[in-house]
């Protein structure tokens, strides 16, 4: 789960990581009021969306009067910001953060991530901040420092100092940098985070070091014991389809293709997506209904897949071990009877109670295309999708 920049800054501040003075606004009036309260004569207005790259997309504006703050906020509210990270759908701005604008001397990069290879938390840092880590990796790969942390001992002072020196902080700044590093590590551990990113970690004219932008992501599997974090969830920033799936206990990832997939088991779901591509189609989603799915759950999954406007054919691919093919078949029939469908549906069943499952499909009298193997299923769904497309194209032309 992701949270907003202002929320991250608030959390990190509790761990000793400083950032400029700021206030959150839900209206332009509130934004101007915050500017007045913060004082000074220069502010930054920042769109709060779950994405980086806001600067380039017009989501970060420097203003030199309270009325300019009002105008910048006014323009951002309700706007759909499309950044390099949001995809073409973008994300809508409902909150803006107003901060005192500071005089930046230098921008560095600091992140803590989970390194799967070493199974440890890893600090990734660079003296070249401000741009995204992908750009740093492409332009100045030699500037990137990576340090893994032993979970039994935590981040040691000498490691933190080494990182601080590599970031080119002056001896007088090392202590501050070390405090920030330790704070980030502590926040990561204490909050069940999966990532902390400060980009830029800025060095100001007076030599102080502050987090100018900050991002925190959390482990969804630990949210049950972090109610204070769950509360920060902002559903307006999440993929509607994925959110609905999570609410129903299904693992779902929305994709850009048009063949909806309902599969049990993550490995089989991956293989199914590959087979669809091999057959010349594109999957619209990854959906794992899990083991032991009841007819009701299958029907829910079906409705979820169909709610995606891009879906023009559906493939149900079940290899039942713990699952039962008859239950899955019942779920499919239940979903189709409740809401008839005018796109092709291909079902491939194998494993426990396969005979009963196939009988249920056959007896339903529904126009379900059946397949025996995975490759047959992928071929059939892609062929049926193509035929359906030409037919509906002809029908439209005839009107
Ligand atoms: P992102 O584009 O979503 O990563 O948003 P950031 O918060 O990182 O802002 C983008 C850029 O705006 C930063 O890299 C800074 O160069 C600039 N910026 C942000 N805050 C300030 C500030 O207080 N003063 C100045 N001068 N620039 C700022
Ligand atoms: Mn940034």
Folded structure, characterized:
- With 399 residues, the chain is an alpha+beta fold.
- The chain folds into three domains: 1-20 and 103-237, ATP-grasp fold, B domain (D-amino Acid Aminotransferase, Chain A, domain 1, 2-Layer Sandwich); 21-101, 2-Layer Sandwich (Dna Ligase, domain 1), CATH 3.30.1490; 240-397, Rossmann fold, CATH 3.40.50.
- The protein contains 13 helices and 18 strands.
- The chain has helices at 5-14, 28-38, 66-76, 133-139, 157-166, 174-190, 227-230, 240-247, 266-278, 295-306, 325-338, 354-364, 374-398; strands at residues 22-25, 43-47, 60-63, 80-81, 91-92, 96-100, 104-115, 120-126, 144-149, 193-204, 209-211, 214-218, 251-254, 259-263, 285-288, 313-320, 345-351, 368-371.
- Strands 7, 8, 9, 10, 11 and 12 form a six-stranded antiparallel beta sheet that branches. It has a four-stranded antiparallel beta sheet with strand order 1-6-2-3, with helices on one face.
- Helix 11 links the parallel strand 16 (313-320) and strand 17 (345-351).
- Helix 2 runs antiparallel to helix 3 (66-76).
- The longest helix is centred in the C-terminal third of the chain and has 25 residues, at 374-398.
- The two termini are 47 Å apart.
- The mean pLDDT is 93.
- Belongs to the succinate/malate CoA ligase beta subunit family.
- Substrate binds at residue 264.
Short description:
This protein has helices at 5-14, 28-38, 66-76, 133-139, 157-166, 174-190, 227-230, 240-247, 266-278, 295-306, 325-338, 354-364, 374-398; strands at residues 22-25, 43-47, 60-63, 80-81, 91-92, 96-100, 104-115, 120-126, 144-149, 193-204, 209-211, 214-218, 251-254, 259-263, 285-288, 313-320, 345-351, 368-371. It is of the alpha+beta class. The longest helix has 25 residues, at 374-398.
């Amino acid at each position: 789960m992701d949270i907003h920049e202002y929320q991250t800054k608030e959390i990190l501040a509790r761990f000793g990581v400083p950032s400029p003075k700021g206030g959150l606004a839900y209206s332009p009036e509130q934004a101007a009021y915050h500017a007045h309260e913060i004082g000074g004569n220069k502010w930054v207005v920042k769109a709060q969306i779950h994405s980086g790259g806001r600067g380039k997309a017009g989501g970060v504006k420097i203003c030199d009067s309270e009325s300019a703050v009002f105008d910048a906020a006014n323009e951002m509210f309700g706007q759909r910001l499309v950044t390099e990270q949001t995809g073409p759908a973008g994300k809508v701005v409902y909150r803006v953060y107003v901060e005192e604008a500071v005089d930046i001397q230098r921008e560095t990069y600091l992140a803590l991530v989970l390194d799967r290879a070493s199974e440890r938390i890893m600090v990734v840092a660079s003296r070249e901040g401000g741009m995204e880590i992908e750009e740093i990796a492409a332009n100045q790969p030699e500037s990137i420092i990576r340090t893994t942390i032993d979970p039994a001992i935590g981040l040691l002072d000498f490691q933190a100092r080494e990182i601080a020196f590599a970031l080119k902080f002056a001896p007088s700044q090392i202590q501050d940098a070390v405090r920030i590093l330790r704070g980030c590590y502590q926040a990561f551990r204490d909050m069940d985070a999966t990532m902390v990113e400060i980009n830029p970690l800025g060095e100001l004219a007076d030599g102080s070091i502050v987090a100018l932008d900050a991002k925190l992501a959390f482990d969804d599997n630990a949210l049950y014991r972090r109610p204070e974090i769950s509360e920060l969830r902002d559903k307006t920033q999440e993929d509607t389809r994925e959110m609905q799936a999570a609410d129903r206990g299904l693992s779902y990832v929305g994709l850009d293709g048009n063949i909806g997939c309902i599969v049990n088991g993550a490995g089989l779901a991956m293989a199914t997506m590959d087979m669809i591509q091999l057959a010349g189609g594109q999957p619209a989603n990854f959906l794992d209904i899990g083991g032991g799915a009841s007819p009701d759950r299958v029907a829910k999954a079906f409705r979820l897949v169909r709610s995606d406007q891009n879906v023009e054919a559906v493939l149900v691919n079940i290899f039942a071990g713990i699952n039962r093919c008859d239950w899955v078949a019942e779920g499919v029939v239940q979903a189709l009877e409740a809401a008839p469908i005018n796109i092709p549906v291909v079902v491939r069943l194998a494993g426990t109670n396969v005979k009963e499952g196939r009988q249920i499909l056959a007896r339903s009298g529904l126009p379900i295309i059946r397949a025996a193997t995975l490759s047959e299923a992928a071929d059939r769904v892609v062929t049926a999708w193509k035929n359906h497309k030409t037919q509906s194209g002809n029908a439209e032309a005839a009107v």
